[in-house]
Specification:
The chain has about 290 residues and is of the alpha+beta class. The protein has two domains: about 180 residues, Nucleoside diphosphate kinase-like domain (Alpha-Beta Plaits); about 100 residues, no CATH class. It has 16 helices and six strands. A four-stranded antiparallel beta sheet has the order 2-3-1-4, sandwiched between helices. A two-stranded antiparallel sheet has the order 5-6. Helix 4 packs across helix 5, helix 4 crosses helix 6 and helix 12 runs antiparallel to helix 13. The longest helix is centred in the first third of the chain and has 19 residues. The chain starts with a strand and ends with a helix.
C-alpha cells in the first residue's frame, strides 16, 4: 500500500553533514522524495507539531522515567529528581516539550515527504529508536546519533537524535498538512484544474493572479502546439511572457513555480520570462 510519511532532518543532522547519508538510507529502501523544503521554524509551528495532548504528554513522561530506570537502576528516582525536580510524568513532559521547541527553533531544518509502499512503517524502521543508545546498528540513529537522554536532561535540552519521522498514518497526514500547508493547497488546486477547461481557468486567473495565469498560459502554449494549433500556441506563449513581465521576480523564491504539473505538462521548478522564452523557442512556438 502506497503511503506518505514526513521526515524532518533536525539541526544536528545538518551541522554534522549527515543530510546526504540520511536521504540515501530512505532512497535505498525504495522510498521516493515527493516534496523537500528547508524551514526556519517558528515556536508556533513546532508547538503545533508536538501537539501536547494529555496522552502525548503522559507517554513522553513515562518514556523518560523508563529510560532513567534502565540507565540508573536503583538510583533512577534520585537522578530523575535531580534533573527535573519532579517525578510527575506530566511535569517532566512539559519541560521536554519546551526543550524540543527550543531545539528546532532558530536553526534551519529540512522537511521531506517520502512516498512508497508502507512508507510510515519503513520510515520508522530506518530511523530506529528515539533514544540513540537503544537504536540498533544499521538504523539512522544507531549509526549516526551520538547523544543520550541522561546527558541531554542534565544539560536541560532535547536529545539530539538527528531525525523526526511520523509515528503512524494519521500523524503523517497531519504533519504533512502542517509543514507543507501551501504545497498541499497547491496540490488540491491542481486536482481541481484537471477537471476544468484550462482556457477558462486562464481567463479567471488573468484577472486575479497574474503569476499563476502566466504559468497556465505557458502550459496552454505547449498543449496547443501538440494539438497542431500553432497560432494559438504562439498567442498563449506571448501572453505568458507579457504576464511574467508584470510580475516582480527578484529571488529564487519568487521564481519558484506555483504549479508542478497541469494537464500532463510538467512545469520547470523555476519559471520566469526568460525561461518561458527559452523553452517555447526550443519548441518552435515563438
Amino acid at each position: 500500500m502506497e503511503e506518505r510519511t514526513l521526515v524532518l532532518l533536525k539541526p544536528d543532522a545538518i551541522k554534522r553533514n549527515k543530510v546526504g547519508c540520511i536521504i540515501t538510507k530512505f532512497e535505498d529502501a525504495n522510498l521516493q522524495i515527493e516534496k523537500i523544503r528547508t524551514f526556519k521554524p517558528t515556536p508556533e509551528i513546532v508547538s503545533e507539531h508536538y501537539k501536547a495532548t494529555e496522552k502525548w504528554l503522559i507517554n513522553v513522561g513515562n518514556k523518560t522515567i523508563t529510560n532513567y530506570k534502565e540507565v540508573f537502576k536503583e538510583k533512577w528516582e534520585i537522578e530523575l529528581n535531580r534533573d527535573f525536580h519532579t517525578s510527575n510524568p506530566l511535569q517532566i513532559s512539559k519541560m521536554i516539550k519546551k526543550w524540543l521547541v527550543n531545539y528546532l527553533c532558530g536553526e534551519h531544518i529540512i522537511g521531506i515527504v517520502f512516498k512508497g509502499n508502507h512508507a510510515v512503517e519503513v520510515g520508522k524502521k530506518l530511523v530506529g529508536d528515539t533514544m540513540p543508545l537503544r537504536a540498533l546498528p544499521g538504523t539512522i540513529r544507531g549509526d549516526f546519533a551520538i547523544d543520550s537522554a541522561d546527558l541531554a536532561n542534565k544539560e536541560k535540552r532535547a536529545v539530539r537524535n538527528l531525525v523526526h519521522v511520523s509515528e503512524d498514518l494519521g500523524e503523517a497526514q497531519r504533519e504533512i498538512s502542517l509543514w507543507f500547508k501551501d504545497e498541499e493547497k497547491q496540490k488540491g488546486e491542481e486536482m481541481d484544474i484537471e477537471n476544468r477547461d484550462l482556457e477558462e481557468v486562464f481567463k479567471e486567473l488573468k484577472g486575479t493572479d497574474k503569476r499563476k495565469a502566466a504559468e497556465v498560459a505557458y502550459v496552454l502554449a505547449i498543449l496547443k502546439k501538440e494539438q497542431g494549433d500553432i497560432e494559438k500556441a504562439r498567442s498563449y506563449g506571448e501572453e505568458s511572457i507579457n504576464l511574467f513581465k508584470q510580475v516582480n521576480v527578484q529571488s529564487f523564491e519568487d521564481a519558484a513555480a506555483r504549479y508542478v504539473v497541469l494537464k500532463g505538462v510538467a512545469l520547470p521548478s523555476y519559471i520566469h520570462e526568460n525561461v518561458v522564452r527559452d523553452r517555447l523557442s526550443k519548441l518552435r512556438i515563438l
